[in-house]
Amino acid sequence: MTAEIIDGKAFAAGLRAQVGEEVAALKARHGLKPGLAVVLVGEDPASQVYVRNKARQTVEVGMASFEHRLDVATPQAELLALVERLNRDPEVHGILVQLPLPDQIDTAKVLDAIDPAKDVDGFHVINAGLLATGQKAMVPCTPLGCYMLLKERIGDLSGLEAVVVGRSNIVGKPMAQLLLQANCTVTVAHSRTRDLPGVCRRADILVAAVGRPEMVRGDWVKPGATVIDVGINRIPAPERGEGKHRLVGDVAFEEAREVAGAITPVPGGVGPMTIACLLANTVTAACRAHGVDEPKALAA
Ligand SMILES: Nc1nc(=O)c2c([nH]1)NC[C@@H]1CN(c3ccc(C(=O)N[C@@H](CCC(=O)O)C(=O)O)cc3)C=[N+]21
C-alpha cells in the first residue's frame, strides 16, 4: 500500500482564501480590519524568513500587519512594555512574539503578559487552561492545523486510537487536548516511553512532534494509519552539493509512506497550515473582540 500524500500546502492556500473572504466580509459589514502584530527579537536568519512570510501572507488576506523588530540585546522590561502597548492598541487583534527569545528574557513571563484575547499563538496559560477544560480558547496554530487536516481526511474521529509523540506545551499537549475533545483515545508518548515503536503501532492517528529527524520509522506505523509529521529539521545534504541542507520531518517519510494510509510531507505539510491558522486565529480574535459571530470554518 502506498499512502495518500496529504497536501498541506494546498489546504493552507484554501484556508487562507477563506480567511480573505471573512476579512472582506468583516470590513463590509462591520468596518472592521483584523490586525496582527509580530514581534521579533534578534536576527536569527530562519526567524527572519518566517516573520517575513507571515507579514506577507497577513497583507495578502487583507489584514493589517504590524512588525516590530528589536535588537538581540533588548532588555526584558522593554519587550514587556511593547507587549503592554500592543495589548492596549485597538487596531491589534493578534500578538505573536516569535520564539525562541534571547537568554536575558524570561519567555514564560513574556507569553503571560500577552492579553489572552490577543494571544493568537494560544501559548498563554489561560488559553492552555481553557482548551484543557473544553472552553472557548485561542488554540495553538500547529495543532489546530494538524486537526483540520485530520478532520478533512478522516471526518469523524470518534473512538480512534491517537498517539502523539512529543509533550511540548506548544504542540504535543494541545494536540492531545484537541484529539481528546474529538473523542479519540489519546496516548501522549515521549522519549521515556517504554516500547515507543509498539505504542506507535497501535495508532490509527500518529502525530510526530519530537524534533528528531526521521525518528519514527516505517515499522512503527500501523498499516493504513494517518500520519501527521510536525517536525521541520534541517539536515546536511552533501548529495546536493557542499554545505547544502534539506528539510526532513520527524518521520522517515519513504518508509512510512509504504505502510500508512495517508501522510503529510515535509516541507508542504503541517508548516504552511501553521501560518494559515495564525491568520485564522487573528480573524477569530477580531470577531470575539467586537462581539461578531466568529466563522466556524476557521476554528477547531
Ligand atoms: N511564537 C511563535 N509561534 C510560532 O508558530 C513559531 C515560532 N514562534 N517560532 C518558530 C516556529 C516555526 N514555525 C514554522 C511555521 C511554518 C513553517 C513552514 O511553513 N514551513 C514550510 C517550509 C519552509 C522552508 O522551506 O524553510 C513547510 O513546512 O512547508 C515553518 C516553521 C512557527 N513557529
Automatic annotation (TrEMBL):
Pfam families: THF_DHG_CYH (PF00763), THF_DHG_CYH_C (PF02882). The keyword Isomerase does not apply. Belongs to the tetrahydrofolate dehydrogenase/cyclohydrolase family. It comes from the Bacteria. Keywords: Amino-acid biosynthesis, Histidine biosynthesis, Hydrolase, Methionine biosynthesis, Multifunctional enzyme, NADP, One-carbon metabolism, Oxidoreductase, Purine biosynthesis. The gene is folD. Residues 6-121 form the Tetrahydrofolate dehydrogenase/cyclohydrolase catalytic domain. HAMAP family: THF_DHG_CYH (MF_01576). Signal peptide: none annotated. It catalyses: (6R)-5,10-methylene-5,6,7,8-tetrahydrofolate + NADP(+) = (6R)-5,10-methenyltetrahydrofolate + NADPH; (6R)-5,10-methenyltetrahydrofolate + H2O = (6R)-10-formyltetrahydrofolate + H(+). Catalyzes the oxidation of 5,10-methylenetetrahydrofolate to 5,10-methenyltetrahydrofolate and then the hydrolysis of 5,10-methenyltetrahydrofolate to 10-formyltetrahydrofolate. It comes from Kaustia mangrovi. GO terms for cellular component: cytosol. NADP(+) binds at residues 166-168, 232. One of its GO terms (biological process) is tetrahydrofolate interconversion. This is Bifunctional protein FolD. Transmembrane segments: none annotated. NCBIfam families: PRK10792.1, PRK14186.1, PRK14188.1. Homodimer. CDD domains: NAD_bind_m-THF_DH_Cyclohyd.
